[in-house]
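batch_manifest entry 22 of 60
target: Antibiotic biosynthesis monooxygenase
source organism: Amycolatopsis pithecellobii
requested by: lab member K.T.
priority: normal
notes from requester: please return tokens only, no post-processing; we will run our own comparison against the previous entry in this batch. if the run fails, retry once and flag.
--- input ---
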Amino acid sequence: MTATPNGYVTVLWEAKAKPGKEAELKAFITAAVTPSRNDAGNIDYEAHEVDGRPGTFVIYERWENREYLDAHLGAPRMRELVPQMLELIEGSIEDGIRLLQPFRPAQ
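--- output ---
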């Protein structure tokens, strides 16, 4: 992942709960939102459940720069949460990560 020309980093992360783990994953993500919003450099951190796809979640995050994102990902609480999350989701965490690059029409 790299930063945008104006410095900020936008991440879209999608995860699907393992069968029978939908409510547990939703509660897990819900508990992680406020601490992540309070991390230095966070601009936005919003969790969503995909309409019509119960158990499929999307988190939209924006960070002031890559260093803040890396600090968030490397925080001790994140290292503790990863093994727990892997018990709840299908596939890997990395499978669902997308870096968004904004673009605008030329003026």
